Amino acid sequence: MENTPHHMLQMVSILVLILYISSLASSASLKVGFYSSACPSAEAIVRSTVNKAISDNPGIAAGLIRMHFHDCFVRGCDGSVLLASISGNPVAERDNSINNPSLRGFEVIEEAKTQIEAACPQTVSCADILAFAARDSALKLGGINYDVPSGRRDGLVSIGDEVPQNLPGPTLSADELVTNFARKGLSVDEMVTLAGAHSIGVSHCSSFSNRLYSFSDTSTQDPSMDSSYAATLKTKCPAPPATYRPNNQTLFSSQSTKEIVLNNAYYGASWAEKFAQAMVRMGSIEVLTGSDGEIRKHCSFVN
Which of 95 and 240 is assigned the larger pLDDT? Predict the structure, then answer.
C-alpha cells in the first residue's frame, strides 16, 4: 500500500471526519451561556480567580491551558485529570509521572469551585470550570478570547495508566503526532495550531535530554536540532526548566507540517483566531452531558 505523506494525510483526514461526525451528538449538548440562568456568575467567578492567580504567578496560565489539554485527551473533557488518587484504587491521572509534578493550577480550579459552590451548589461542573479557566488564561496572557460552549458533566473514573496511552509523547514523529490527534477528531492544522500554546509554557530537561546527550548509537545529539540552540540547552540542563518543546521542533522539521508552523509564526493574528477555534473543538472531545457523570461538590473527589 502506498505510504506517502500525502496518502497518509488523506487517511488521517477521513479518520478525523468520521470521529468528528461521531462526536456531534455529545458536543451538540454543549452551548454558550449554559449557566446563564442556573448560575449566571459562574464564568465571572472563574475569570476573577484565574486573573488573580496569573497576576501572582504568570506561569499558571500555561499550566491551566496544559491541564485542559491533558484532561481532554484522556477520557475526554470530563475533569478526570482533577481527581486525586485514593488508597486502594488505581493511581489517578494527575499522579502519573507524565503529569506529576509538571501539571500546575489545581489550586486555582479548587478555589473557583469553592466560590461557585457557595453561589450555586452542585450546578457547575469541574470540567466546565477547567475549560473556562483555560480560555481565561489565554485571554489574560495572550489576549485571545473566545466563547466556551459549556454543559459538560464530571467523570467518575481517573486511571493514571491511561495517560501515556492517550497523550502524545515528546519523542513522537510528526506522522505519529498527526495520527494521535486524529484519534481525538482533530485535524493536522488544529494539531499544529494547538502546539503553538507551548510557546508560553516550559518543559523539563528530562523530556528531551536524550536528544542532547544520547540520541542514538551513532550520534549523541539529534542532528535535526539547531547546533547553537542545542548548545544553549546544554548550559541549562540537567537543571530544569528549559524553554523547549521537542514536538515543536519535530513539526518544523517535517515537510507535512512545516508550512503550517511557518504560517502560524508569521501571521500571529491568524494563529490566535485558529487557536481559539481549535480550543473549542478540543474542549468538545468525548464530553459527558445530560445525565451522564455527575456535578462534583469538590473537584478532587467524586461525590
Answer: 95
DSSP code for 31: B
Q: Concatenated DSSP letters for 165-210?
A: HHSPPTT--HHHHHHHHHTTT--HHHHHHHHGGGGGS-B-GGGTHH
Task: Give the pLDDT band of residue 100 (cuts 50, 70, 90).
Answer: very high
Whole-angstrom distance, CA of residue 245 vs CA of residue 85: 28
Q: What is the pLDDT of residue 49?
A: 98
CB-neighbour burial class of residue 103 (10 A; exposed 0-12, middle 13-18, buried 19+): buried
76 φψ region: left (φ > 0), alpha (ψ -120 to 50), beta (else): left
Half-sphere exposure of 139 (CA within 13 A, CB side): 15
Residue matched to cell numbers 500571529: 268
Mean pLDDT, all residues of the chain: 85
Distance CA 165, CA 208 (A): 19
Catalytic positions, written as ranges: 70
Q: Span 202-206, mean pLDDT?
A: 53
